[in-house]
Design goal:
alpha/beta, Rossmann fold, 2 domains, 7-stranded parallel β-sheet, 6-stranded parallel β-sheet, 16 helices, 13 strands
């Protein structure tokens, strides 16, 4: 079975790495890797492929950055001829980026079955572009691999037949567990930043609802400055976020923070693992901190990953500066929420995916 595997942006790399490894070990699957280039930074891409042991993409579309509709349209335009040429039996997509929904649409138009890894997650907030991407991709998919039990309930409530849903665990956790020890042994990021273990916080922020609204963004930075009075904060600044800092004239508001460019995977894992806490609006980081046992404050009004709150180390704090500061101080004083790894987050999700696909017959 020839499976065309899609990545589009850096969060996809951590999800596809263990899947590609497991597929290459299978005698029944011929995997092909396609990178749409939805987000493309040559240095960061090369580092991720090297560190995670991902084979170089067989096909690169070079779509580039742009608005939501433009990016999806451009991906459709460039991906359609690839489907004609490659004639895959299946298209496999991961996560919720624009490349995921665009390639799912293109495959569906050609009646090629779609498999969605990380299906069924819902924030129930349609103002998030990712929520639309998740819903459309799930509707088009023949097999839906889920990471947590809430995803099953969401899909069943939307009328998805139960036999399409497979609970396999979390492939992102496969990658984290495989590389955590290597990160601890090889990363020198704490030495470079002269940071003692467990005496700093890490921050990431990139969602439009947080950084595109000056009032909201200013409030979050106000909270960070207050926290930084007693605990150093390392802020890994997404390109979108850096642009908004300059556009809104907020340079003074970040002077008390340690600003970094987006970091290679191993450095980021080590940085988070040794932090007192992580503040973020990233879905993946909510999962990673739960596995690492590090308290996480999610700066959003909702999350599509409720298991990280119910079982993990995550707390949803919204964007109120007062609540962010209060919850951060609580972690500093008490050590924060003690969680546990959710069910099947054991490093073997990709194995379960490939084992299922070896027996599955596309319709």
């Amino acid at each position: 079975m020839k499976i065309l595997n899609i990545v589009g942006a850096r969060p996809n790399f951590m999800k596809i790495a263990p899947i590609m490894e497991a597929m290459k070990a299978s005698a029944k699957i011929t995997p092909v890797l396609l990178h749409t280039g939805q987000h493309y930074d040559s240095n960061m891409n090369d580092v991720f492929f090297d560190q995670l042991g991902i084979p170089r993409p067989d096909i690169e579309l070079g779509v580039g950055s742009g608005g939501q509709a433009w990016q999806i349209a451009e991906t459709l335009r460039k991906f359609d001829p690839v489907l004609e040429k490659e004639s895959p039996d299946v298209v496999l997509v991961v996560g919720d980026v624009n490349a995921t929904v665009a390639c799912s649409l293109a495959a569906s138009y050609k009646k090629i079955p779609v498999i969605h890894v990380e299906a069924g997650l819902r924030s129930f907030d349609r103002s998030m572009p990712e929520e639309i991407n998740r819903m459309v991709t799930d509707r088009l998919s023949e097999v839906l691999f889920i990471t947590e039990t809430s995803a099953r309930a969401n899909l069943l409530n939307e009328g998805v037949p139960e036999d399409k849903i497979q609970f396999v665990g979390n492939v992102m956790v496969d990658t984290l567990l495989k590389h955590r020890e290597n990160a601890a042994q090889t990363s020198r990021i704490l030495d470079r930043l002269q940071l003692p273990s467990k005496q700093y916080a890490v921050m990431t922020l990139h969602r439009p609802s947080n950084v595109d609204d000056k009032e909201v963004f200013s409030g979050i930075l106000k909270a960070l400055n207050q926290i930084a009075g007693g605990l150093k904060i390392v802020f890994a600044v997404h390109p979108r976020t850096r642009g908004r800092i300059e556009e809104f004239g907020l340079e003074e508001s970040v002077k008390s923070l340690i600003l970094l460019e987006p970091q290679p995977y191993l450095d980021m894992v080590h940085l988070m693992s040794q932090a007192t806490m992580v503040l973020t609006d990233s879905g993946g980081i909510q999962e990673e901190t739960s596995v690492l046992g590090v308290p996480c404050l999610t700066v959003r009004e909702n999350t599509e990953r409720p298991v990280t709150i119910e079982q993990g180390t995550n707390t949803l704090v919204g964007t109120s500066p007062e609540i962010i500061v209060r919850e951060a101080e609580q972690i500093i004083q008490t050590g924060g929420k003690q969680g546990r790894c959710p069910e099947l987050w054991d490093g073997r999700a990709a194995e379960r995916i490939v084992r299922f696909l070896e027996q599955w017959q596309p319709r």
